[in-house]
Design a protein that fits this description.
The protein has 71 residues and is α+β, with helices and mostly antiparallel strands. It has one domain. It is built from 2 helices and 5 strands; from the N terminus they run αβββββα. The strands form 2 sheets. The protein has a 3-stranded antiparallel β-sheet with strand order 2-1-5, with no helix packed on it. A two-stranded antiparallel ribbon has the order 3-4. α1 crosses α2. The chain is rod-shaped and about 55 Å long. 10% of the residues are buried. The model has no long low-confidence stretch (mean pLDDT 85). The structure holds zinc ion (ZN). Zinc ion binds next to loops.
Length: 71
């Protein structure tokens, strides 16, 4: 739902690994670009897109439970 989309974009912007290609200079989510290892500019190497999706659904569930308690 909405909370999941919010958590997903928030996590994606903060913890998901982002790399800069040493060859073409563009930012990428991939650790290898243009056949060369990229330089990590932020995030964690283990935080893949799948991990972000999993975490965001967990957070959305927790948030929904929390809101349910308050209402
Ligand atoms: Zn490249």
């Amino acid at each position: 739902g909405l909370a999941g989309a919010f958590a997903d974009s928030w996590l994606g912007a903060t913890v998901q690994a982002m790399y800069r290609c040493r060859v073409c200079g563009s930012e990428t989510e991939r650790a290898v670009h243009c056949g060369s290892a990229s330089e990590r500019i932020r995030g964690f190497g283990w935080m893949t897109n799948d991990a972000v999706n999993l975490l965001s659904s967990l957070m959305a569930g927790a948030l929904a439970a929390l809101l349910g308690e308050l209402l």
